[in-house]
Predict the 3D structure of the following.
Amino acid sequence: MPEFYTVVANRVDAAFTTQETRNFGLSLQFNDFHIAYCVMDYRLNKYILLHEFRRNDFIPRAKPGFKLSFEDFLRSVLTANPWLKNPFKSVRIAYEGKKSTLIPGPLFDAQEAENFLKLTYPVPADEHVLADHIQQFDNYNVYSIPKSLEESLMRLFPSARISSLSTILLQTVWMNFKTRINANRIFLHIKEKSFDILIYNGKQIKYLNTFTWMVAEDVAYFLIFVLEQLGMNPEQSSVVLLGNIDRGSNLFELIYRYVKNMEFGRRNETYKYSPVFDIVAPQSYYPLLNFNSCES
């Protein structure tokens, strides 16, 4: 069923073997149109595999009226990679959604999680509301996930816990940059169809939001708009770039017209990386490759 998806990344260390998954940690990042996962060999504290698949919108041999579901997409990935059903030492899953809101710990009530989210977003009956506790800031990240996506993943990985990708981003950025975060430090995390703007004010989260984008101008517009709304001068701001953005790309060049002080995120030196990761940009797959440093 390869026509159900396109392979975006396929990096596998020569020493990887499907017979030793009990010694490995599996970290997954997904939404309804893509799945990415990496494998760490805990014995070596080393990443040894990275895969990413994008769901195809057009299926050449599909019957008229056929609509590819996430479960079809997931099943096709599993057919090509049956070892994903093997037992692992740990399995972590991050959902890449667009609905989330931060609630201060003293105000949070688990029974009211859905009502908190409804203050900002509509929550239809086919979505499940979850909340992640971000201990570093004593905040709760409240978000929703389509029940069908959650059920599909949990059937495959019943012992795994799903977190919001934005939770992982918040935690891993803080852990990797906390000695360098001062007032109004800005992080721009670029994904395929959306992007996150994260701003810290010293040791507190000042701003977090996710935007949809189609062209580079969308990213530049929302970034400048947010900075101006917060009273921040783009020309004097410092931005760390994470995710799907490279120096010399149209997106980078456009943002550089307005923000001169930019740097790319660096790889977490706590871990080792197989040589097959050498061609993967250090800022790419940032939350996914830092998932293991998050608290359970």
Remarks:
- The chain has a mean pLDDT of 90.
- The domain at 180-264 is CATH 3.30.420.260 (Nucleotidyltransferase; domain 5).
- The helical segments are 70-80, 113-118, 147-156, 165-177, 216-229, 250-256.
